[in-house]
Amino acid sequence: MASKETKQRGRPRSFDRETALEQAMRSFWEQGYEATSISDLTRTMGIGAPSLYAAFGDKRALFDEVVAAYGRRHGGFIDRAVAEEPTARQGVGRALREAAVEYTLPGRPRGCLVISAALNTTPASAEVAASLREMRRSNIGQIESRIRADIVSGELPADTDASALAHYVGAVIQGMSQQARDGADRAMLADIASLAMRAWPETAEAGEGEETAEEAGETHGDPAADGGAPHPRRATLAHPAP
Amino acid sequence: MASKETKQRGRPRSFDRETALEQAMRSFWEQGYEATSISDLTRTMGIGAPSLYAAFGDKRALFDEVVAAYGRRHGGFIDRAVAEEPTARQGVGRALREAAVEYTLPGRPRGCLVISAALNTTPASAEVAASLREMRRSNIGQIESRIRADIVSGELPADTDASALAHYVGAVIQGMSQQARDGADRAMLADIASLAMRAWPETAEAGEGEETAEEAGETHGDPAADGGAPHPRRATLAHPAP
DNA sequence: TGATTTATATATCGCTCGCTACAGAAAAAC
DNA sequence: GTTTTTCTGTAGCGAGCGATATATAAATCA
User: Fold this and answer.
1) Do residues B182 and A137 lie in contact, with contact meaning Cβ atoms separated by under 8 Å?
2) Is A159 in the same domain as A188?
3) Nearest CA distance, A137 vs chain B (angstrom)
4) Considering Cα of A145, then A147, then A149, then A151, what sign does the dihedral take?
5) In whole angstroms, what is the distance from residue A195 CA to residue A191 CA?
6) B9 confidence band (pLDDT: 50, 70, 90)
7) For tag attachment on chain A, is the N or C end more exposed, with fewer CB atoms within 10 Å?
8) Can you tell me which residue has its alpha carbon closest to the C1' of nucleotide C27?
9) Is the pLDDT of residue B207 over 70?
10) Do A91 and A181 belong together in one domain?
11) pLDDT tens string B28-86
12) How far is the CA of A26 from the C1' of D27 (A)?
């Protein structure tokens, strides 16, 4: 599937399938599923309609493939941050900081495709909308699971409402995506992310110093995502200062 | 404009204009501007296309009228909360709590029309999208102004970033609207609102921890004027109040 | 060299979009 | 009554939608 093993028989394709898919992603990302017409796609992909249908099926199948590629290339940072960091707090903090960067990278559409590409849909596209909604639900579920693990381990207080906290994080991320599309710059999104983390529950007991403002590392090397709290940290009794 | 003074000359209108406008609002609110067709509108409004155009102009003008009516009947609660409560904190807290109720009222579309009705748009509807975006910007500006006033009065710390805090609130509200449309119930939205307020900066001087999660519990019925105010703390010690 | 296979370019298809011309219907004005 | 004014129902406009039929172009296989 990934490589051509034998020489194909007929006339070879005159365009690069991956490049065309990338262009389709741009269009769907910017305008959304329904607002992007086949005519838009053929123009930006640089191919004719029959080539599009031969290579990708129909509009819906092309979109599905775009969403899959998006998840692989751009959308995975949240799950990755939550899975890789040692605590839920650090994972979510890093996810929010990285979202501020990802959602404002120059040269690509603002915000998140999964969040914004199928919001105002006709009944004809109800399935597409439901598909993206399910992905959003799944993302929040991932966060909730990570939070629950920290409750079990004692990192978070036993009475922490994992579902509510995860949905709060999801709402903030969706809000950040919309703010990015509405024109907020990267620094503003970083401020929102930083503020949002102030709502995070205190560590249960003898926490180890969680410096949430520490380097998230491997994102995109952009220093704008300092993540440091521009606002005075709220007074806490149990939280050891870094 | 509000009343008919003289008897009109020709054949009288066979439908109630306000009722028709209400139905149009429902359609736009549910599906968004572009995804709602004239055919949808004439069906739900119960009138023919020529009657629609005679009474409201074109689709764009009808939508503008819908948005104006929406602002009057449903959308004003944020500005009202922020304007009426004695502090920005109480105002925003009440606004978030009321959003949880407003965005999940049974028998009407979920979420906020201004937030969600023109998100995936073709270039043909760029003006509509820009118009709603400007309203969102204005709402955040209102919140920012209220926060700034509390900084001046000393209610909030002098180093509070009013713009960032206002944009955070805006992002949370937009996230709540999307969550509502994604199926979150009222209790979940109330939890998100409660969590979001934990990020609010401490009062400049006056004492003790704010128990920001002070139960918005009641939800329905009258969103009490004092609802949510943990304790009246208007006096500030650090700065002279006007 | 054909013959076969696959891709592309042109020119649509049926359908829905926002919108309107036109003629008939229902009221006030005369 | 007749005239005038306004609204409503039918029917259809040009344009764009997603998707294709057809014919030609470019490759491999024999």
Assistant:
1) yes
2) yes
3) 8
4) negative
5) 6
6) confident
7) N
8) B11
9) no
10) yes
11) 999 999 999 999 999 999 999 999 999 999 999 999 999 999 999 999 999 999 999 99
12) 31
